Amino acid sequence: MTASLVRTAGELAGLDAGRSGGRSERAVVMTMGALHAGHAALVRAARERVGAAGTVVVTVFVNPLQFGAGEDLDRYPRTLDADRELAEAAGASVVFAPSVDEVYPGGQPQVRLSAGPMGERYEGASRPGHFDGMLTVVAKLLHLTAPDVAFYGEKDGQQLALIRRMVADLNFPVKIVGVPTVREADGLALSSRNRYLSAADRVEALALSRALFAGRDAVAGGPSAVRKAAGEVLAEAGTALDYLGLVDPADFTEIDREDFRGEAVLALAAKVGTTRLIDNVRLCF
Fold first, then answer.
1. Is 130 a known active-site residue?
2. Where are the domains of the chain?
3. How big is the CA angle at 123 (ends 145 and 114), to the nearest 5 degrees?
4. Calpha distance 33→61 (Å, rounded)
5. 65 three-state secondary structure
6. What is the distance between the alpha carbons of residues 223 and 176, in angstroms, rounded to a whole number?
7. How many angstroms separate the CA atoms of 215 and 283, rounded?
8. Which of 250, 239, 251, 224 lies closest to 279 in space, CA to CA?
9. DSSP 8-state secondary structure symbol assigned to residue 67
10. Rounded to whole angstroms, how far apart are CA atoms 122 and 75?
């Protein structure tokens, strides 16, 4: 299957020709490019969902609204040719790669979505405004691509929770599907930012997944045991930790009861060298 490269909203709208009663499903996978095997897993999941007759749209757009001052917008990798090849090999029908002017034709939008209280926790506390910018572009891309179902990676756990909440609160007619994090054989979560890591940084970065796995292995001891096990790994490694949280996956509020029962997410962020990485694992108490 050859993936068409689409640059404008007008071209994208042309994909709707013939999408009337009894039509096949359309899925979207939203990315900022620099695609890797984790993104390929999202595209494959989307293709499996919609079948051979369905349409899988992969968006490639580095959204300036979700980068704060001093963050890596300018150096964020742009690899569109390679991205298109990977998306196509994984089953994409269309790659939508608009310019900033195409997405924000009047300049930065005056009206934006607010992530609310959930967007102020953890990643939101460390990156003020990040989730407002993320939800604004996700909402816009959902309108432009008009999917039946949208796929997002569980590695960005708070982002996934916020997108689900936005879709529910604002009645978007789309189903949101989370896809498990893809990892290297040694446990490192795949990320476009991993390419910034030096050889020494990469070894150091393994402390993040080790800590999460240690926490997961301690789940029988309850929330305190999970936090303690993960914290000890990070402390021993001397990790420059931003946060470590054990949270409810629905709203990213901290789990503060030892008798908690149900699903949880153990999430962290840390600086490795000059690169900030995030990761999480899902638990069940």
1. no
2. 4-179, 192-280
3. 50
4. 7
5. helix
6. 28
7. 9
8. 239
9. -
10. 24
Structural fold of domain 4-179:
Rossmann fold (3.40.50)
Residues 6+ apart with CB under 8 A from 247: 121, 122, 253, 254, 255, 264, 265, 267
Tell me the pLDDT tens digit for each residue of 185-200: 999 999 999 999 999 9
What is the three-class DSSP state of 72? coil
Catalytic one of 36, 39, 130, 143: 39
Name residue 136's amino acid.
T
Ranges under pLDDT 70 in the chain: 16-22
For 182: left if phi > 0, alpha if psi spans -120 to 50, otherwise beta; the answer is: beta
Residue the block writes with tokens 């390679």:
82
d(CA 65, CA 134): 7
C-alpha 273, offset from chain centre? 22
Fold of 192-280: Pantoate--beta-alanine Ligase; Chain: A,domain 2 (3.30.1300)
Give the single-character DSSP code of 218.
T
